[in-house]
Amino acid sequence: MRLVVRLLATAAAMVLSVPLAQAQQAPIKIGSVLSVTGGASFLGDPEKKTLEMYVADINAKGGINGRKVEAIIYDDASDPNQARTFATRLIEQDKVDALLAGSTTASTMAIIPLAEDAEIPLINFAGAVQAVTPVKKWNFKTPHTDLMACEKIFEDMKKRNLTKIAMISGADAFGKSMRDQCMTVNKKYGIEVLHEETYQPRDNDMTAQLTNIKGKAGVQAVLNPGFSQGPAIVTRNYKQLGIPYPLYQSHGVGTKQFIELATPAAAEGVRLPAAALLVADKLPDSDPQKKVVTEYKKTYEAKTGQPVSTFGGHMYDGLMILVEAMKRAGGPDKAKVRDEIEKTKNFMGTGGVVNMSPSDHLGLDLSAFRMLEIKNGDWTVVN
């Protein structure tokens, strides 16, 4: 009788151990909603490629604490409504453990409330400050903010004694946000905004607005808060009109595609704040960021055959921050992972050194930005 009981107990233990073992070996699911196509594809496409490349690499090296990683990626086609739909699917149907999602500000703002309600860690890739401020418990971000971009640009203008400017801003979520952020700090840097113009996301000519700026007395420089095709059109029209003042763009154009669309001749002399990734090969060996940015650049360009952009770098940083948090948490437990992301310290990423805290879910300061100038169709560092 004892033998029968022992056999039954052993059999029961074996049966119970099967689902337990299966659960332990189940892949960690990372959900991603990106603008792979549509007007913001220059953001989402390199983000998707980066995620796929590095998840494959992580799995080849044994995964996270021995568990494989599964990336579930949906393309929102640059539509915030689609972003909301796909994020809901990832949370409710795919049962993902964390989210790396939101290529644009508009898409990100649609996803954040879903992550908060579901209590699931989210690292987003939007440019605007409202994508991380005010701090929300489950939401984090890797790109520099538009407020930081305004301050970096105004610092440079002040050094060049350019204190009276005009702005031509995109009417999209990012363009509006950056314009508003610039207007909160311009006086801090002694910058006076003499004139403002705007354009719509689908406008294909900004000659009229730029003609108004050209005719405005006293203007010494022009700032264009915007992303997508708008800044390239502004840059071309700017050259065509022969406007003599320096032109500044936002960090929303940190890709070689911008130079190509604007044309190298028109983009010559344009300045913008960006991550060190764009000038990886131009950094001195003593620069602490050089190793990470050169390695990412080399890997990305070798595997995709495309020039590196800061946007793929934002995904790299987000994925690595998440992976390290999951390792420290001992697995994908959402609450523990959230806490570990918030504890991220001295993470050397493509965007800079990240030091997060309960009051800062970005963790970058102004030193993470480099001021760049386009010369001969390429990025150069402004000293």
Automatic annotation (TrEMBL):
Keyword terms of this UniProt record: Amino-acid transport, Signal, Transport
Domain Leucine-binding protein: 27-363
Matching InterPro entries: BCAA_transport, Leu-bd, Leu_Ile_Val-bd, Peripla_BP_I
GO process terms (BP): amino acid transport
Family assignment from sequence similarity: Belongs to the leucine-binding protein family.
Name of the protein in question: ABC transporter substrate-binding protein
Source lineage: Bacteria, Pseudomonadati, Pseudomonadota, Alphaproteobacteria, Hyphomicrobiales
